[in-house]
DNA sequence: TATGAATGAGACTTCATTCAT
DNA sequence: AATGAATGAAGTCTCATTCAT
């Protein structure tokens, strides 16, 4: 299911190249990264990359696909094993955070170049996956409203939008200069802010 | 006497062109927008743009500068007239939201191409302004912690980071397809989420 | 004889504009100077220049024509009133130097952009004038050889070439930073070098 | 370890391209030569040049640098092995002439576009080298004045200026239409003119 | 006379991609 | 697997010139 027509066998070299590319994409965005830069990082000439991939986009494709598979998979199992929407949401937050830290590059790519990717047939699965993700969140939030855990006046879709973007934020902090938080700190901070707000009780 | 070499006088035509460019930048990002697209939108040839601007970047410069002036100005007056940090923060949120809706393009530009801009001398003021903004937030949050309004265990810098990015989110929703919220709804949702979290009391 | 089809009447404004243009040409060369720079110097817009001239080249034309008229005229009267070729040459040197200092721009234009001008029909007179100049020099040098004033082994054409270019040199020094010589000093130095060389006797 | 980032290794193809470019620069000047003309001469598309060089200017840089290294190197060894300033100067003249004929293009570039190059940081070495060249000449001329070989009333700097430009002249004659002199003839003519003037004894 | 706006040709440059070796 | 060279499309910018007002 994951392989398209041309997807070459995942040799070690290939995997290494994807990782190099992903790091560059994470730093500068997909479009802003040139094939030459990737090749430079690998110590080869840009033309030589085309022995491993048939295009720059197919590198992007591989990175994005793995990311979304990871996230969607995580959400599915988060929801499955949770009766309480509050628990489900906590699991989803933790699962998201973990997936994001495993696929930092994918996030930058989606943030910076969403319009670019989503306009292409090849990347139609992006929209599909995002829809499933959105639905999962909304389902849990609605469930929480109905059983009284969450405030009844929440606009589930609005909160989802906020949450989705909020969850994405900390990833982009990694490797940035200045104080850096541990993932756990961030997640806990997030959850607390989410459930309780900043006001003292 | 009134004209400086570089800060070309803001003729009507010029202002109009900047608006057209800003719309495109908002849609597709600064780098992804070509000079020709801007010219097409204006119904002229791409070279003709250079009658009004010396470079694509100087268009970007103008848009970003106005935006940051607006935001920083808003924060200053928000802080000045507020004894209670809670009030200050509410004012800052409202002021941000207003500024962001006035300068939608600037935000997209910063989000998509921050690395590109901030690496250039010409855009050094971006970092300067961001620092002032950060400090303003942190000051108010710390004040709130000390006088007991906010939870004592808040990491002010962490919360600021979250907030900053959260505030930016709704802007990118405008003009997007699907359900759209009114600005007031969004701001109120945000403030409520911020102060109280999603949990029912 | 000096007017071509379109040559506008030499109003004061026009003359002033030509002087401004000439200064810029002298500094940076004809091609390297843009119409906009000329207009800027005059405090008008570049399009407005076309009320006075039908093209950038016609400005160049006027400058070059005046210069060559001046030089050729000077040579003619130098030769007329001189029995001794030594005297004729001294007069030619002084006349050249004077003409060059009056038309500094023309020189830069010819030096930098000779290939450009001389390839155009419009500037055919450049070649004509240069031929007359060359012939005048060669005539005097040959005369000097025959009557024993100059060394019999001089290659007149070679010496002319050297001299022509040598005479042009000091002009380009004016306004340059560092020590500057008076015109008289330069001319005397030149003449002495020419007639006697640098060796002590 | 041998390759620096910018000073791309001199492949054969690269060297060939530089030679082609240099010929064009010599003919028409640096600025007046377009990248497309260079590419045409090489039988490739203009964009393909950028596989070998990062810019037109870097081609110019390479040509100019080699030239100045050659000239300065030649002057140094001319001065080292010569007790008599007269001998030193003769060596310098011969060394200049040789270097100039090896780097004809560089000369045209400096003559036509000196203002353009010398205004750029990248070409700061031009000024440095010119200063060393000037100082070398002046030193030898002063030495000759003091030991009585040269006339005591010579203005060393003035003579240098004349000489420098005079030495440059013959190069521009090569390949020009009309009678052409052999290099030796030119140099001997020059030296004789320099030491003895044109007057018969 | 001058302005303000625009044209159009052509300059330099970038970059994903191809391909013979 | 990789190199070295090239393509070709597209992008930013320059500049002499035109023209309605």
TrEMBL record, chains A, B, C, D:
Specify the DNA-binding region ranges. Answer: 34-53
A GO MF annotation of the entry reads: transcription cis-regulatory region binding
- Keyword annotations: DNA-binding, Repressor, Transcription, Transcription regulation
Q: Which InterPro entries match?
A: Homeodomain-like_sf, HTH-type_TetR-like_transc_reg, HTH_TetR, KstR2_TetR_C, Tet_transcr_reg_TetR-rel_C_sf
Q: Where is the HTH tetR-type domain?
A: 11-71
Note whether Metal-binding occurs among the keywords: no
Source superkingdom: Bacteria
Protein name, per record: TetR family transcriptional regulator
Organism field? Paractinoplanes tereljensis
